[in-house]
Amino acid sequence: MRSSTYASTPKALSELNQSRIVQYLHQQGTSSRAQMARDLDLTPAAVGKLVARLMSLGLISETGSMDSEGGRRSIGLALNADRYQVIGVKFARSLVSIGLFDISGRLLDSEELPPVDPGNIPGAVADVRTRVARRLEANPAIVAVGMAVPGPYLRESGRIALVTSMPGWRSVDFIHEFGQAFRVPTFIEQDARAGALAQSLFDPRVSASSMAYFLVGEGVGLGVIDRGALVDGSQGAATEIGHVSIDLNGLPCECGNRGCLECYCSAVAIHRRMCQPDVRNHFPGVEAMTHAKACASLFDRARSGQQAAQTLVDQIADYVGYGCVTIVNAYNPAQIVIGDMVAAAGNRLLEQVRSIVSQRALPGLREHTQILLSRLPIDATLTGAAAVAANQFLEHPASMGRTAVKSTSTRRAHHPSSGKEHHDQ
Amino acid sequence: MRSSTYASTPKALSELNQSRIVQYLHQQGTSSRAQMARDLDLTPAAVGKLVARLMSLGLISETGSMDSEGGRRSIGLALNADRYQVIGVKFARSLVSIGLFDISGRLLDSEELPPVDPGNIPGAVADVRTRVARRLEANPAIVAVGMAVPGPYLRESGRIALVTSMPGWRSVDFIHEFGQAFRVPTFIEQDARAGALAQSLFDPRVSASSMAYFLVGEGVGLGVIDRGALVDGSQGAATEIGHVSIDLNGLPCECGNRGCLECYCSAVAIHRRMCQPDVRNHFPGVEAMTHAKACASLFDRARSGQQAAQTLVDQIADYVGYGCVTIVNAYNPAQIVIGDMVAAAGNRLLEQVRSIVSQRALPGLREHTQILLSRLPIDATLTGAAAVAANQFLEHPASMGRTAVKSTSTRRAHHPSSGKEHHDQ
Residues of CATH 3.30.420.40 domain(s) within chain A? Predict the structure, then answer.
């Protein structure tokens, strides 16, 4: 039996000071403590303490004295980001990818698994386990694994409550499968929440206190940061925008509802639409494509001027726009970042989304909501999975049994949004 | 010019320890410090400190020694709740009510203003100012005023972004009108958020960490408490459920969107529906009624078995149910409390709402969401307005210029969700 002692965590994201210092040094190169305090809006005392902790991990080194403004000299600090590495795993529906990152979130290498056979989900799970274990065996620098899974992910039971189009994922108990699988701790987070974390940490345009990451890919998901912390819900399953209905009499969804947003603008829905008799002759071979390939080819055709493709992209953008209207009115974020597969439609989609929001979202709010496309070089969810692991290590190195001098043998499944560890017995 | 220094407040609700002690003594009568610490899950040291602060305000007195379990004797504490009083004001669309409460949230008396003339909103504002000032003049025990206004309320500008059916409210600058009007500070909060605060403080059934208050009255609003704090939004205007669309091709709403929930189940929408040719002969005189009277008569008729009324109540309940489905999937609260005018439809409505949720909300989440009707003896929003004022006083008595020995002359408009005061210049 597992104990279920997940505390709610108002500070889940507001305590990321060590992560922010790592990000800051990653972006700046070298800096002094004083400069860092000014730029990060921290007190010199706080910076001193955080730097000391990071130095004890060997993550920061002093680089000797450097000039600073006012003619005074101070000690430069630099990051040894590759000293610790993390693995990120993104589970989508048919797509699973694994990436190796340094602790600052820089991708070192990645691999994509063969498309998941809906009839053999356990095979995909075993494959992930084998590949991650192989990487861990070969690479002692890896200190944690982060996994991003489609929502609604139920934190306490380790299960996904529902996965449209590939229900087999529901039978996977992620805590059971991965909690004790590796020599390093594993952290599991819902995909769009991991993506929100990645956006707020790794894109300097993006607010750390109020933003929404709108994942439009094989599924449709959302992670919302409000007052510096993820909107959580009693089961960790809040912000399931993919299953907020936009049409009470609309398409029936596998969740039991009708008109769920996910039925209209997910990559699965787009692929399905492309296969319909009235349009499929514009997309030769579409039936045999993967969802990802179908979307990519649609966006390519739209960009090269094909009328039918452009019309379809505009229709998709309308639905992404209705989703953004709901996000503005329901969460009032300062920013919405649209990412994942469908964001690859680019500016044509973005402009149409902005137009829908300016027509339909609440006046007084819509003018204050910035809508952006993700600019992370790597998939936000995969980066987010790594960010979840990196942050847990940076903020709680000791609780992970890992310090500069001691290597870990922790065998617990962790949940990043929980303040406490998950104990298997 | 005003400065706009509203900080976000992750601790807005998590810091209500003094309020909770007041509530506890209000409900328990007499208690010892040790008992209080156990029941409120606080450390004895924390309780000692909180009690000392409340004693210095004259709000708690020691009542002499009392028996406690184990045969030991301890000192009893009791509340002097009427020592400090607060005024709550509820602004709906056509309805404005004012209540005088003691600091524990007990209603002492209340008055309802004459229905607001849409053509003379400034007159209604002046009337509120006069009535509140008169009460303050006559009653030196009053230490704060709380006001609850329809959302979307823009915290920094002091304005309501949109008020369907009575646009005149948009022209009111609440900070300007009330910020300097009284000898005590005035706090302004969106109505459903104030209601959420009241529910979590005053109804022992209701969670203080994860709940949603679904206000279905002249307007439709929502306040969500997640991880112990209100979901806020970048402008303090999150959770505008009344303008989340349930039908992208539905009724046009004054906000610019189509199919907004508010178009289907607000008291205004219900009244409009009752006046339509196909049903109005079942409701004689309905055109001349106020929205409140029309709803009350509809619910009475349904309870007394009138078929047409029951059919209409069931249709309304469907829409309230679709709203709850969105709330479950968008916020995953442990509880939804339905309140205000339309909740008076009672169990018939509640059962239908639960049925819709069990069909349509996400499996895995819906089974864990309790749906309740408000049980507060007084309107939750009016009580909430008072609770906002009482909490501000209890948690920050010094910053309000009021202590046990010093009376206040603070003339600033305060926002309860902001950690900082609002400075007019």
Answer: 82-196+379-422, 204-373
CATH architecture of B82-195+379-422: 2-Layer Sandwich (3.30)
The tens-digit pLDDT sequence of chain B (425 residues) is 222 222 223 234 445 778 888 888 888 888 999 999 998 888 888 899 889 989 998 999 999 888 766 666 789 999 998 899 999 999 988 889 999 999 988 999 999 999 999 999 999 999 999 999 999 999 999 999 999 999 899 988 888 888 877 888 988 999 889 988 999 999 999 999 999 999 988 888 999 889 999 999 999 999 999 988 899 999 999 999 999 999 999 999 999 999 999 999 999 999 999 999 999 999 999 999 999 999 999 999 999 999 999 999 999 999 999 999 999 999 999 999 999 999 999 999 999 999 999 999 999 999 999 999 999 888 999 999 999 998 888 877 765 544 333 222 223 344 554 433 333 33
Q: Does domain A82-196+379-422 have CATH number 1.10.10.10?
A: no
User: For an interface test with A, which of B332, B357, B371, B417 has the most A Cβ atoms less than 10 Å from its Cβ?
Assistant: B332
Report d(CA A348, CA A6) in Å as an integer.
43
Transcribe B157-226 into DSSP letters: TTEES--TT-GGGGG--HHHHHTTSSSS-EEEEEHHHHHHHHHHHH-TTS-SSEEEEEEESSSEEEEEEE
Range(s) for CATH 1.10.10.10 in chain A? 17-81
Radius of gyration in angstroms for the set of CA atoms belonging to chain A, rounded to a whole number:
22
- Classify domain B207-373 by CATH number: 3.30.420.40
Of A209, A249, A362, the CB nearest to B240: A362
Yes or no: is domain A204-373 CATH 3.30.420.40?
A: yes
Q: Are A168 and A119 in contact (CB under 8 A)?
A: yes
User: Domain B17-81, CATH 3.60.140.10 — does that match?
Assistant: no
> Can you give the C-alpha Rg of chain B in angstroms?
22
C-alpha distance from A103 to closest chain B C-alpha (Å): 28
Contacts of B396 (CB under 8 A, 6+ apart): none
Distance from CA of B107 to the nearest CA of A (A): 32
Interface test with A, best of B315, B328, B365, B368 (most A CBs within 10 A): B365
CATH 3.30.420.40 boundaries in chain B = 82-195+379-422, 207-373
Between CA A299 and CA A293 the distance in angstroms is 10
